[in-house]
Specification:
Layout lengths: L9 E2 L4 E3 L5 E6 L6 E6 L7 E2 L9 H15 L2 E4 L5 E2 L5
Length: about 90
Amino acid sequence: MSESKGAPVLCQCANTYQDNRGWVYFVRPGIGGDVFKTFYRRPGSKKERGYTRLPWRHSPHEAQKDLDKLAADKKWMIAVRNTEEIKGFSYI
């Protein structure tokens, strides 16, 4: 659930996934913090790229649902499972 601008964004169950190549997929806010999307990082890289096949969303929960569905369809394994309410997102 998103709060007013400038307030921390709270997210429940922000899972991070890894595919068989070792690429890591996660949700993070965009510039301004009021839109969210799935991003990925290749092994050995510090650069994050937006996953273009998934849309920008207005809440972290919507973006996480997109990622969870994609991960289930592609049978990716969970790299990091956050089961309690956390502030922000995991920046690996």
